[in-house]
Amino acid sequence: MKQKYKFLFKRVLYYLHGEKFFKRLNYDWKSLPSRTEIIQNIINKKNYEKYLEIGCDKDDNFSKIQAKIKIGVDPQRGGTIRMTSDEFFKKNKENFDIIFLDGLHTYEQTIKDIQNSLNIISEKGVILIHDCLPKKIWNQIVPRVYGHWNGDVWKAIVHSRTFDQADTYTIIADHGLGIIFKRQNRNLLNLKITNFKKLKYADYYNNHMKFMNLINYDNLEKIF
User: Fold this and answer.
1) How many other C-beta atoms can be found within 10 angstroms of the C-beta atom of residue 97?
2) What is the DSSP string of 202-215?
3) What is the mean pLDDT of the chain?
4) CATH superfamily placement of domain 2-218
5) Cα–Cα nearest to 217, from 184, 187, 176, 189
6) What is the tens place of the pLDDT at every residue in 148-195?
7) Cβ distance 192 to 148 under 8 Å?
């Protein structure tokens, strides 16, 4: 109950002092595949053997994934390794076929995790990022002010779409799944900005298709 009132208080403050843009996107996540289903299908179809998950929490996803080698990293609970993603990437010397990023849902941490993942993903591997498609402004405010929190992960997707050697899309499923291939960018996003943190929710909403490079799950195989 205390948490609920804390969120309410923060929302009132944000309403008074934050960005005022309250249009929303009408995604129906319950009718679409889950992240676990998508990850497992990719592993099975591509015969991937080495799986890394960043941000395991209660192991809701990690415990269901089947792979020859599974490593889960979380500073508090879940997975197989107890440390931050920064610590893990600094010490790690392994490459992985598939990496799932679901750690701290902020732009700053997510873009670091993406860049570090690009350094250790296998040549034919893939990186997936959870919570990339917030439906309304409250879902993406940092710090958290609402029950379901996507954070501003979407800004990291926009940023990665400007990388020459990272090909980034967003799968319309399970609150948005970013998917990144380490290869020439096939649809380079040219933005005349350097500080992606300053992007507004209105920018995300008004440039949704352009920014997020959306793809339906049924067409996922076409981009591999």
Assistant:
1) 22
2) HHHHHTHHHHH-EE
3) 95
4) Vaccinia Virus protein VP39 (3.40.50.150)
5) 176
6) 999 999 999 999 999 999 999 999 999 999 999 999 999 999 998 999
7) no
